[in-house]
Write a structure and sequence with these properties.
heterodimer, A: 245 residues, mainly alpha, 2 domains, globular, B: 221 residues
Chain lengths: 245, 221
């Protein structure tokens, strides 16, 4: 069979694996939903959680589609589709693919057509290098969870502070990242301000949403405040980049 | 008589089965392509590629597992570590859902809320990617349009601006030190950038835990 990075058979294999991952999500959704109802959580509450999560996901998911398009130039569509539906991210896949390609004397982004051997090699590198999380969670996930629960049982207040501290630690790292090009401003390159201003717009929209909820008691606003601030921040990036970029 | 599993135990049992099955399926992708096209990997290229890629990502995966599992809950962890995009999508979705429902991740209610939010997010993401793959020809010029590029380049700042306001305003005492530390590090250490932010997450978490512990012991929280 003649090899082609967009061969229907590759779509079929990738489709089967993506379908299995989709089935896992549906399985856990139904399991959690049933348990929620069984312990007395209202259907409305569960629906709100699902709706908010769904709406929030749209913009980042479109960004993932763009990543598929980016990687498809070298790798065809099925492999990036699979890799970005299962575990992957654009930065990881780009690094893994470009390392595998350069090991075979190719240059990422400039590959006219891959043969089957090169394709299998790249797929192997991308798959093996990202596998740890999938098997490590089954191995130590329960122990980590039980550790958290027993800590909270020993000292409830510290348990709550511990959880909040983990969230804050994660958020502070990403807030720091927003400023990673900020020092360029000292050298006259104002583009380092773009992510900072985008972050501020998003934060401002979130504050306004909070105020709106307080003034009007429209609690549905708070359900959608995060997706609204995300989209407002992203939209603001267009004029801000045109201004400072 | 067979012992009745608790909900949490059954989540761990099912999660293990699902994750290990998906892992096998993933490995089968390159194997089946090799079998269908009667080829083998370029072993030298494979080894060189693995050596250049795997050590860092294996280390990051270990650190991410230890860091993110307590925040995602059991069901959310099994799903997130299969579907990926944890820091930029699954964790914010879970945090937002928990915040809206005023639930703690260590409670059963929090576990359910986190799992539902992450499952819905995974389903929506998968469906949107499928739609994108089906419509890739007409969508490519639209999504690659230069006018939209800045919006998609700034997803993380747009996401963490909103999320930061919510969490920092509620936990400002424990937020001040880690936020200042991360700002200083990211502004003045050139090696810290988009590629290394994942490594800085556990640094931020450990530092915040240390600061919180000190404040807690001094009855300042």
């Amino acid at each position: 069979m003649e090899f082609n990075v967009n061969s229907p058979v590759l779509f079929l294999i990738a489709g089967i694996i993506v379908a299995a991952v989709l089935a896992q999500s549906v399985y856990f959704l139904i399991k959690a939903w049933r348990r929620g109802l069984a312990i007395g959580m209202s259907k409305d509450k569960l629906k709100r959680v699902a709706m908010t999560a769904g709406v929030f996901t749209v913009a980042p998911a479109v960004a993932i589609v763009i990543s598929v398009i980016t990687l498809a130039k070298d790798l065809g569509v099925p492999l990036p589709w699979l890799r970005l539906s299962v575990v992957g991210s654009l930065s990881y896949e780009t690094i893994a693919a470009s390392n595998a390609e350069s090991a075979m004397g190719l240059t990422f982004g400039q590959v006219a057509s891959l043969n089957a051997t090169q394709y299998v090699t790249i797929a192997c590198v991308m798959t093996v290098s990202i596998m740890v999380g999938i098997w490590l969670v089954p191995l130590i996930g329960k122990k980590l969870q039980n550790g958290m629960i027993s800590m909270e049982n020993r000292d409830k207040k510290w348990g709550e502070i511990f959880s909040a501290s983990m969230f804050i630690g994660m958020i502070s790292a990403f807030l720091g990242y927003v400023f990673c090009d900020f020092s360029n401003v000292f050298h006259g390159d104002m583009s380092g301000l773009i992510p900072v201003l985008v972050m501020l717009v998003s934060a401002l929209v979130m504050c306004l949403a909070g105020l709106l909820v307080k003034k009007t008691q429209w609690h549905w606003v708070s359900d959608y405040a995060l997706p609204i601030s995300l989209v407002a921040g992203m939209a603001s990036a267009i004029p801000i980049t045109a201004w400072l970029g | 008589m067979k012992k009745q599993l608790s909900y949490m135990d059954s989540v761990h049992r099912d999660g293990r089965i699902w994750n290990l099955s998906v892992m096998v399926l993933l490995i089968l992708f390159p194997i089946s392509v090799a079998l269908i096209y009667h080829t083998m990997p370029d072993w030298r290229g494979f080894l060189m590629g693995i050596l250049a890629t795997a050590p860092m990502y294996w280390a990051v995966a270990v650190v991410e597992t230890v860091t993110y599992v307590p925040m995602l809950g059991a069901g959310g962890s099994y799903l997130s570590f299969v579907t990926g995009n944890i820091a930029n999508l699954k964790l914010p979705v879970a945090l937002n859902a928990l915040e809206q429902a005023e639930a703690k991740i260590s409670s059963e209610e929090g576990e359910i809320i986190s799992t539902i939010a992450i499952a819905v997010s995974s389903i929506v993401t998968t469906l949107i990617i499928i739609l994108g793959v089906l419509l890739i020809t007409p969508l490519t010029p639209v999504l690659n349009a230069p006018v939209l590029a800045p919006a998609f380049a700034q997803i993380l700042p747009a996401l963490f601006g909103g999320l930061g306001v919510v969490f920092i305003s509620k936990n400002w005492k424990i937020s001040v030190a880690p936020v200042i530390l991360m700002l200083v590090l990211f502004i003045f250490v050139p090696a810290l950038n988009a590629g290394t932010v994942g490594i800085m997450v556990p640094v931020g978490v450990l530092f915040t835990l240390a600061v919180s512990r000190i404040l807690y012991k001094k009855n300042m929280l």
